[in-house]
Amino acid sequence: MLLSRYERMIARRYLLPGRSEAFIAVVAGFSLVAVMLGVAALIVVMSVMNGFRAELFDKISGLNGHAVVQGYNGQLRDWRRIADEAKALPGVTAATPLIEQPLFASYNGRVEFAIVRGMRVQDIQSNATLKGKEILGSFKNLKPGSEQIAIGSRLAEALGATIGSEITIYNPQGAATPMGTMFRTVQYKVGAVFEVGVYDYDKTYIILPMEDAQTLMLLGDSVGMVRIDTSNPDKIEQVVGPLADKVRDAGQITDWRQMNRELFEALSVDRTVSFTILSIILVVASFNIISSLIMLVRAKTRDIAVLRTMGATRGSMMKVFVVVGTTIGAVGVGAGGLLAFFFITYRAQVVWAIGAVTGQKVWDPQMRFLTELPAKTDPFQTFAICAMALLFTFLATLYPAWKAASTDPVQVLRYE
């Protein structure tokens, strides 16, 4: 919207009302703050929701893959053939064997539920989710026959175990005796303590070499599943679809959507609801802009009439008040973006400060799955939020601007 020189001058004067219009300036300031808070809240919340989903997906898929071929009765005997056929599919980047079984772990009189996972040594050391996540010891200590394991940090805390501690793992599927099935108990030494950042994994997971897991669970050469990674997780059904007929006699395919459907659907609904509710702040800010502009028009009615008699057109008056309102919104959007950047950059400190003031644990890993508050800002989404705020602001200026343009100078100046 191009303004002439005198239109810019008038708009600039109306943006900074005099002392007689101090109340109008206060209302306009509230409008600016409301736009700022609305934009900042939307950007921060959407960034946190995006980061939460991305971080959770990366952690889950990093350990469980994008799909798994699960063997019937927990055993997959022909796993090498299945892994080779999976690798041959277009879009599949890796197919690795896994053993996973819920068991119990005990140390120093404490017993905890644990998920025991067997992986090949090279897969343990190359896994992106596990790499560099040791807080004590090293995954290099895990070798077939070494009787060493890696446990999650939360599980280590619950058991009171550390590097070198000898943990007993109980397998209910033990040897059959005249007195019934006896639990199979095997002792392992802790060779590493890891923390991947997902509370449930750090609280329950025990990782050991594939060969040791096969011995513990009496599987022979079998595994429990074959994990499949793809280059495009969003098209997982099309990628692994051709494999279904080839493995039908050995097991079934489950992809990441089926394994975590409820969780990701809940995140999607939460993100939509949060966006809708926080958008109301921008609507309220728009009404504030309408109110401040209407008061400004009423206060400047005589000035508008004089300008009209001096040759100012209706279009000029509309442009002046549209620019005044839109400028308030644009400054609010810019300030909101800066405020959002501050909160996202220092989110950990902000969460700590809120917890210190309220005395509450704002971010509880047991409820939030992740140990730290994540954030991932989407530039396109941020642009859309700013554009939406500017659009609301622009629409809010139309009625006051139309009222200013409709001012009849004859009626206003009749008794002057």
Furnish the topology, listing elements before pairings.
Layout: H1 5-15, H2 22-64, E1 67-71, H3 79-87, E2 92-107, E3 110-119, H4 121-126, E4 134-137, E5 148-152, H5 153-159, E6 166-171, E7 176-177, E8 180-181, E9 184-194, H6 199-204, E10 205-209, H7 210-216, E11 225-230, H8 236-240, H9 244-247, E12 251-255, H10 256-259, H11 261-299, H12 301-309, H13 314-345, H14 347-358, H15 365-368, H16 379-405, H17 409-413
Parallel strand pairs: 3-10, 5-9
Antiparallel strand pairs: 1-11, 1-12, 2-3, 2-6, 2-11, 4-9, 5-10, 6-9, 7-8
Helix pairs in contact: 1-13, 2-11, 2-13, 2-16, 11-13, 11-16, 13-16
Please provide a written account of the structure.
The protein is α+β, with helices and mostly antiparallel strands. The chain folds into two domains: 5-58 and 263-411, no CATH class; 77-249, no CATH class. Helix content is 55%, strand content 19%. It contains 17 helices and twelve strands. The chain has helices at 5-15, 22-64, 79-87, 121-126, 153-159, 199-204, 210-216, 236-240, 244-247, 256-259, 261-299, 301-309, 314-345, 347-358, 365-368, 379-405, 409-413, and strands at residues 67-71, 92-107, 110-119, 134-137, 148-152, 166-171, 176-177, 180-181, 184-194, 205-209, 225-230, 251-255. A six-stranded mixed barrel has the order 2-3-10-5-9-6. Helix 1 packs across helix 13 and helix 11 (261-299) packs antiparallel against helix 13 (314-345).
